[in-house]
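Ligand: zinc ion. Inputs:
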Amino acid sequence: MKAKQKLREAVDLLYCRGCAGTEAYSRLLLECFRNADADQARRLQSHMKLHSFTPTTSFFHNRLLQIYAKSGYISDAQDLFERMCHRDVFSWNAMLSAYSKLGSIDDLLALFNQMPTRDTVSYNTIIAGLVGHGSCKMAFDFFTRMQGEGFVPTEHTYVSVLNACSQLLDLRLGRQIHGWITARNLRENLYVWNSLIDMYSRCGELDLARWLFDRMVVRNIVLWNSMIHSYLRNGLPKKCIELFHDMRFSGVKPDLVTVSSVLGAILQIGTTEEADKVFRGIEKRDKVCWTIMIAGYAQNGKEEDALKLFTEMLLDDIRPDGFTISSVVSVCSRLASLDRGKVLHGIAIISGLEGDLLISSALVDMYSKCGDTTDAWIVFKLMPSRNVVSWNSMIVGFAQNGLDEEALALYERMLQEKLKPDNITLVGVLSACSHIGLIECGRRYFHSISELHGMKPTLDHYTCMINLLGRSGYMKEAVDMILGMPEEPNSLIWSTVLFVSALNKDIEHGELAARHLFEIDPLNASPYIMLSNMYAACGRWDGVASLRSLMKDRNIRKIAAYSSIEIDNKVYKFVSDDRTHPQTDIIYNKLNELIKKLQQVGFASDTDFVFHDVSEEEKFESICYHSEKLALSFGLISKPSGAIPIRIMKNIRVCGDCHLFMKLVSRSTQRSIVLRDSNRFHHFDNGQCSCRDYW
Ligand code: ZN
Ligand code: ZN
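Predicted complex:
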């Protein structure tokens, strides 16, 4: 941060003077390069132009190209490259590296083919670029071609091709490369060694990886981490902890990454107490230790522990940094705890960290996950700089909160600013299209994933498309798409088919999807329940009965549905028919009173949504006391008036009856209700829901 500020001041100073001359310009450019500061580089470029400074060599322009490439300003790099009169191999390499990071494979290959001369760096760049894009086979072709043209592979080449072997799980080729490395005497190069160990461990040869590891001449922290990660990735947390003890015994100081992996390992197999023991056992607990521990809890689903520890840290007079605060903010997003999230926003402001990229992105995410898109937008707009994570938080946030047009408009703006979207961005975009049924738009965006952005559509993207097509009545196209998928469809894909079939009461496709789901995970209750609900909605009671006995035979239990609501910094949980709350009587009275009032205006419980084939009266009883209705009634008692919306979170999808109920209550009480279910947000206002009844 400081270095960047100094650099800016230096450039500011330059602007009060005339031409700075070769030496000063080159020094400042080097600083821009070190800080990947393209903005200052731009200013330097215009300063040179202003004073008609024409560099005699291509050095300046090459340096500028490198800076633009490094900081992702691809169009500036392109512009400059086009205008350069003298391009040497360095210029071409700089442009190549920009494309390898940001461009499509086609651009990358085209540029490489245009190069008048090439060197080892050119080959290394294209190989690394191809591996980064997942085109590993093509990378091998270039590796062969490189040697055919007489270039000797370097450590960088080997690191890339080993990475490709890891991606393809090609152990045979990996071993061959290992042989070459030994022959070339590159064994003592840390990065090469690290990639070798990584390759073997990813290919499942853990013993070989460990053998190599033990024989290393120089072991450093990166390798330790790499080995610890390999154990974790292969589901061997115990080995990971053993290695950690070895490591401390031999006097190597663990760093942030190591300790957080180890804490992650402990939290996977053991308890928070064990992790706590490691933590309390550290003599001098500095900010880093606290942060690791808090982040460890946060990442391992121990949300309340993370928040408690954060409070303890503040009481210990340790100032949190951007990483700590963003970790706890993300905890609040998961808990949908807006009150505590706002307190953290306050702490960030007091600590002078409101402009911190990590914190702001986490805040945008937190506000949108709590259904408060207004505040999310304010934080987003005020951010001094944004990265793809920040854009994603806002785009996905809009889409989840029913502001789908806003999500799409923001995405277009992101493209205009020449930012490269990633998989998450496109999930947000496609889900926005599916909420508002924009078939053509959705198809276009889906094709752009591979054609424009050079990425492979993921299962999530397919899920969005199937949702979009299925909801709009293009069930056949959706099923064709599944059959044409390069990968085996997973349970998420089939549950989506089941869900949209249920919406369309399309029993044929619903049964098809359910059959696949029963095969993938025979003990998961939700497909049984979804299919059964669908049968019930179509009056097919025989189907309901046979599913019920199937569930009984296989001993499948329903997931416990619950809803939670936060009142005065405390989260209250309700299950269906819950009678454990101390104010149970008042809650039920309030709920019955609401139901009666709504019945007078024609509300009749939609008993289609009840699972069992029972009498109407019984059905009515069980549906009236769904957890979200209880939470709502508790919310209305606790906060009888006010402009602040009542916020409820539900762990599964809201049922149709509760959805209608919330709409009517929002009109009759003139209160806004925000309900976050497992799928999306529902903002109920004056009888309407933001999801437009699509969920
Ligand atoms: Zn319900
Ligand atoms: Zn809704």
